[in-house]
User: Which sequence fits this backbone?
């Protein structure tokens, strides 16, 4: 049996990692690109600096994403750079007020301007979402095992909605009916 050349073995190993179809989210590169596009208020300055930095920083972030971070994401299911756990963002609600939304490991914590806290919790065991307000928890919905519908709790009853335009219209109607039911 012939000895395998070390360079050939390294190239084959590298190719197996590079072409293994674990594309990944490229979170590090995307964060860099977002920063580069928004570093100043002038799109011309952003473009000029981008032309200078992209060959250096862009290639480094792509390399790190391709070889390290996307491999971690493929095997663990999560990208360490993409994680927002523990971070709080300010979000303007439809009512014009600013809400603080903190990302948790299994959901979100929403703090209203008046200080009231609402928890949205994802239960991985049955792929469901629940809401906790004023110490009371109730299930909102869960994804059906068929992957084609969600089961929502409407007026205390579980109701299935398909994941298409017809299901969206049925959910709108059910939500309007629940508002009317709650107003009684």
Assistant:
């Amino acid at each position: 049996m012939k000895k395998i050349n070390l360079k050939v073995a390294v190239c084959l190993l590298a190719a197996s990692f590079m072409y293994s179809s674990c594309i990944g989210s490229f979170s590090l590169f995307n964060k860099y690109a977002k920063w580069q596009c928004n570093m100043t208020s002038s799109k011309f300055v952003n473009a000029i600096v981008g032309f200078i930095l992209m060959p250096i920083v862009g290639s480094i972030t792509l390399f790190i994403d391709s070889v390290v971070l996307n491999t971690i994401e493929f095997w663990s299911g999560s990208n360490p750079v993409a994680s927002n756990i523990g971070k709080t963002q300010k979000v303007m609600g439809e009512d014009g007020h600013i809400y603080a939304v903190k990302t948790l490991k299994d959901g979100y914590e929403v703090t209203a301007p008046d200080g009231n806290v609402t928890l949205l919790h994802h239960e991985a065991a049955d792929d469901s979402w629940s809401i906790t307000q004023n110490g009371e928890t109730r299930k909102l919905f869960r994804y059906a095992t068929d992957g084609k519908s969600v089961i929502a709790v409407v007026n205390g009853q579980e109701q299935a909605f398909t994941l298409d335009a017809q299901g969206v219209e049925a959910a709108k109607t059910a939500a309007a009916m629940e508002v009317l039911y709650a107003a009684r």
Remarks:
- The longest strand covers residues 136-143.
